[in-house]
Give the backbone structure.
Amino acid sequence: MIPDAVFTLDKAKAHLRVTWPDEDALITTYLDGAVAACESFTRRAWTERTWKTLANSCGAVDKAVYHALLSPATEVTVRSLDAVPVELPTTAYAVTNVYGHSVLVVNSWAGITVPAQGNAAEIEWKAAPSEVPADVYAAVMLYLGDLYANREAQNIGSGVMLNPRAEEMLRPYVVDMHL
């Protein structure tokens, strides 16, 4: 299934058996949260996402390696944090996938001044998955149903548990970041 066609408000409302428009904003928020929970658990992007991380000063050496928060990263931009940002040329780095995990390898920091301490550069990651498996879709809907049905804390002092069936369905898609 193509991600844009999968996680829609209409499909979420159909799953929740909601026909009225009064809770559209709430359901949209819960749907985004359910997708984010599945992405966090699997470390995979199931929708188009853009996020930023910082390359710290220890990355000032050549052949620095940075791991994506979500995979697959389809596009990466590296730029300095100077007053006038400088974009690192695409020939200075490469994005590879190792066992399903996206990794940025900076071959050279040419053109970017790296301070002795602090952050040297900003890495902007983009992910655009091509499809969403049916079991991942089902897990998102399970999380959505839990969020919608259980709007308040159930027990004071108890931890919140994720849906065990949803986790079981997502487990085959977890990206191992311990490479």
Summary: The two ends are 29 Å apart (CA to CA). The mean pLDDT is 81.
